[in-house]
Amino acid sequence: xxxxxxxxxxxxxxxxxxxxxxxxxxxxxxxxxxxxxxxxxxxxxxxxxxxxxxxxxxxxxxxxxxxxxxxxxxxxxxxxxxxxxxxxxxxxxxxxxxxxxxxxxxxxxxxxxxxxxxxxxxxxxxxxxxxxxxxxxxxxxxxxxxxxxxxxxxxxxxxxxxxxxxxxxxxxxxxxxxxxxxxxxxxxxxxxxxxxxxxxxxxxxxxxxxxxxxxxxxxxxxxxxxxxxxxxxxxxxxxxxxxxxxxxxxxxxxxxxxxxxxxxxxxxxxxxxxxxxxxxxxxxxxxxxxxxxxxxxxxxxxxxxxxxxxxxxxxxxxxxxxxxxxxxxxxxxxxxxxxxxxxxxxxxxxxxxxxxxxxxxxxxxxxxxxxxxxxxxxxxx
Length: 381
Ligand SMILES: Cc1cc2nc3c(=O)[nH]c(=O)nc-3n(C[C@H](O)[C@H](O)[C@H](O)COP(=O)(O)OP(=O)(O)OC[C@H]3O[C@@H](n4cnc5c(N)ncnc54)[C@H](O)[C@@H]3O)c2cc1C
Hints:
Blueprint: H1 7-24, H2 28-34, H3 39-47, H4 66-76, H5 81-91, H6 96-101, H7 104-116, E1 121-124, E2 140-144, E3 147-158, E4 165-171, E5 181-187, E6 193-198, E7 209-220, H8 232-268, E8 270-271, E9 274-275, H9 280-308, H10 314-343, H11 349-356, H12 367-379
Parallel strand pairs: 1-4
Antiparallel strand pairs: 2-3, 3-7, 4-5, 6-7, 8-9
Bound molecules: flavin-adenine dinucleotide (FAD).
Residues 93, 122-126, 131-132, 156-158, 201, 209, 359, 362-366, 368-369 line the site of flavin-adenine dinucleotide.
């Protein structure tokens, strides 16, 4: 693995770093308090190309590989993570099914609009009765001539309230278990599609998750990803596998932000007539944070690089997701401790980060599910 990133990636990273610092970070608390982000900022993020980082240049994206996307995600972790969530579904779960398993026509039709950010993309697998056990989804798709009629409900869908196009997993043959699941590209304008309840969440208040309801929703047969029934579960797993690595990269950036804030605070906060960083108890917390971040960054880059080399990364992706999501929760906890009472107050970004990052051990496969994946790989003959 080459540790020297190509010139263009370094330039993109530096541009993203400046954008985060100058445009996003100054409004990050405001966005949290208002529970929405200004459309002008979303437009700027479109102009920066952030909606198409992972989409090939031929479809109008930036054409980054997994490693490149991770390097960028690390920067996006250094501010309110809701900004990354806004365009993250376009780079990740909302586009990758089409990109990995879609037909040339499907890619041609959808990817340019997703890459530009004209359309927001989402991914709808989870249902009220099917979370970790994703193969037990109940949303049905029945063929009627040239269309499928979808019936059912998805919940907790990131950007579900604003999505223009959604990769939806539905059962086309319930006798076949996971092999009876098919992935559909569903546009919000298709008859029978509606947005249900918008969730009230613990964190990431700058963007929403929502229910999506299908009532005889008419989806053209040509919108089956790859045009083949029964491949949807495999497509979903491929999408999630990549997401595990790129989400882990966000955690590295968030943890770095927490460490930097903790170093700065511990140098200026004086108690017992000296800065608190003069105490070994604080120094060791900082050191442990740095060790974890260093370790996490290396495994993210390595797993991303392996994926870019077309290696099978099922186990690595799961390990990286568990390690980095648990790491960032430990790091933000230490950061809050170092900030003392101030870290518990709404004025401090650490308070928000503490809540926001709790999600990362749950979505796109809980820590328990990742450990199931890892142990399955370890124990297989
Ligand atoms: C903010 C947010 C955004 C999300 N965005 C999306 C999205 O865009 N698209 C989408 O499809 N989904 C999305 N999800 C859903 C998310 O992926 C699920 O919440 C997650 O997979 C867990 O499912 P569950 O909530 O039903 O928990 P459950 O599956 O009910 O799990 C509850 C607990 O039991 C544990 N558990 C379950 N089975 C086992 C087992 N066999 N062994 C050990 N422990 C087990 C779990 O690890 C967990 O701790 C989102 C969720 C949230 C909160």
